[in-house]
Design brief:
Layout lengths: L22 H30 L2 E8 L3 E8 L5 H15 L6 E8 L2 E2 L1 E6 H9 L11 E5 L5 H6 L20
Parallel strand pairs: 2-3
Antiparallel strand pairs: 1-2, 3-4, 3-5, 5-6
Helix pairs in contact: 1-2
Length: 174
């Protein structure tokens, strides 16, 4: 009994169950490297274009189909205006595979809310000069989550790190 497969490529033998070449694996590795390079370029472009809109990107994470951004608004009094500007930047600069934008504005470094925006409905709204009421599922607002791993990861190099807390105290008076 032999584990060798018949020779089919000029006399070389391949083990049974093992591909003769690893071009599929290599192609996947090349695609992953290309995606990483494209994601890094997209992140730089997003940061640059958001800065041009007076929005500071504090943390960013690009996933397989979503992008998570923590930002600080230095210009717009109404947060909706800042969100609209950032959504337009993301629609122009984010890789095409990204369908969900998760935006979290920060106020003095503290996340205030999370806004989830779906790319396809927003593109339809902008293409037809429509309004958000035409696509009610295009955007949703939630309370900011308590856990922020992307923000924590990007803040590791910042020093000093300040913290805050709210707790009850007992006060005495006359």
């Amino acid at each position: 009994f032999s584990n060798d497969a018949p020779a089919d490529d000029g006399g070389t033998k391949a083990k049974a169950g093992v591909p003769a070449d690893d071009s599929g694996t290599k192609a996947k590795a090349d695609a992953t490297a290309d995606d990483a390079a494209a994601d890094a370029a997209a992140e730089r472009k997003i940061r640059r274009d958001a800065k041009a809109q007076s929005l500071r990107i504090d943390a960013i994470s690009i996933g397989s189909s979503d992008i998570e951004i923590y930002y600080t608004n230095h210009r717009y009094e109404i947060e909706d205006a800042a969100i609209g500007r950032l959504v337009r930047v993301l629609m122009a600069d984010a890789p095409p595979r990204i369908e969900v934008f998760r935006l979290t504005p920060l106020l003095f470094g503290v996340p205030t809310q999370e806004v989830t925006v779906l790319r396809s409905p927003m593109e339809r709204i902008f293409a037809t000069n429509g309004t958000l009421s035409e696509e009610p599922d295009a955007m949703a607002t939630h309370a900011a989550p308590f856990d922020h791993p992307v923000l924590s990861r990007d803040r590791l190099d910042s020093y000093p790190r300040f913290s805050w807390s709210i707790y009850p105290t007992l006060g005495e008076g006359l």
